[in-house]
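User: Before I run my own analysis I want an independent prediction to cross-check against. Here's the chain; please return only the structure tokens and, at the end, one sentence I can use as a sanity check.
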Amino acid sequence: MSYRENYQSWMNDSRLCEEGRAELAAIASDEKEKEYRFGGELEFGTAGMRGLIGYGTNMMNVYTVMRATQGLAEYIGTLSKEEQKRGVVISYDTRRKSREFAQAAAGVLAKNGIKAYLFGDVHPVPMLSYAVRYLHTVAGIMITASHNPKEYNGYKVYGEDGAQMSPEATEKVVRFIARITDYLSVSADEQSGLILPVPEEVDETYLEELGKLTLSPAAVKACGKNLKLVYTPVHGSGYVPVTRILKRLGINVTVVEAQTAKDPEFSTVAVPNPEYKETLAMGIALADEIQADVVFGTDPDSDRLGVAVKDEKGEFTALSGNQVGILLLDYILTRLKEEGALPANAAVVKSFVTTGMAKAICDDYGVALYETPVGFKFIGEKIKQWEKDGKHTYVFGFEESCGYLRGTHARDKDAVVASMLCAEMVCYYAYIGKTVSRRLSEIYAKYGYVLDKNVSIQYAGLNAMKEMNAVVDGLKSASVPAFGDFKVVAVRDYSASVRKTAEGKTQALDIPKCNCVYYELEGGSFICVRPSGTEPKLKIYYSIKAENEKAAQTALEKAKTAVSELLERVKK
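Assistant: Structure tokens:
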């Protein structure tokens, strides 16, 4: 059907709710809006689906949620009887319609005879991941659009190991979803006895697991009560677990009260993304007022942590996700080594777009470093693999997008455990007479300065993903000898799992495929271009190694100019 026919089909359907009918009636004369809403379907990728909230086949609404859940239910129906009986656990964050979508998903599962554990209030991604493992469910569903603007919501599916569902299983779920062409045909039973509350002990045991991961109890005991830490949940689901774990450890925390409200409009910030200093502005203002030491902020589903610390001038500066990552990596390895607890087969995992500095740190400690595609599920898969074969002991995993995980209690980014570790890291350095800012300078002095910068190019419209992928595809055949001051040493085409050197030699890459081009530059720098899998943005990652920050900034600007010229060339 054409988008016009699709639109009219929904409007003529008596099963469409009144809210949906009124919303769609309001766009009756807006052809562009109708085409966007009905000219395609919301893609269910390896991380589930994410989109603008509204009615239509290409939007996040109760019907697209129920259709996706029906597909998941039919997939579960192909599993063993024992697996089917284990059920699914469902959580949600503070976004618009999150609770409604979670209840609808539970009702669809129940209608299909599948037990659904539903959290009674908002809970973050890591606690959903933990609950899947604790309750031994066969799957999990998280209703969230993470750090996206308020107009978005999303639907993420987790496998029985607590990691986002594997590509293989997702492909099967997608086939079942695709068979459902009548979106309004899926029914639910939200009053079913198969819908159960998540047991209260899940929250307590989760916090107990985090408590086992502390690395500096003496420093926390000595400095925690005097530490001035400001925390903002940015209206999200992190408020209760983050404050509970910090207070349990005896760490003094002051919250930004205005941002503790479960506000689906995120009315105090432009975007609820703690990667941006602007999102932490109220926290920094409060920190200046009370002369605090550090500021933390978590996103709506509390899987990302933003951090701001005082610099040498006593002014707050927001650290990048890469900087927090290397600080935590350095801290974790330092403390494990000092305590004689660093496993001989220790391993760290990061996405390949995350800072190149991680390798120097891991090499210095004799720790193996593995790279994965973007997406924490790939880090979760490494944990699962090593638990089976015993090849390595997982000690830390991180992504440049403010995502970190220590421990194996969860298999996704965990801003709660990251908050705990960052807080005790501040205590540890205070205990030995340092600041976090000074330690970061020492790391740069020891391993060389690396400037990591991400640039996003916004796309719009129904064909945004197609257009972004076309740009990346164009890069694969473009000859690029250098970017600014840096010669290209090799090019990795992750869609073909091939690395090709400047001399023309090729080798296979043992890594899951994705549409991404990665340029290895001389001296250990890199540039990477990929389409985002969760929002209409073409993402460009720069990791520039130089003598100092000034030299790195100069080299970065030249590299950015060269990349812009290249992108214009491949678009023609």
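Sanity check: The two ends are 32 Å apart (CA to CA).
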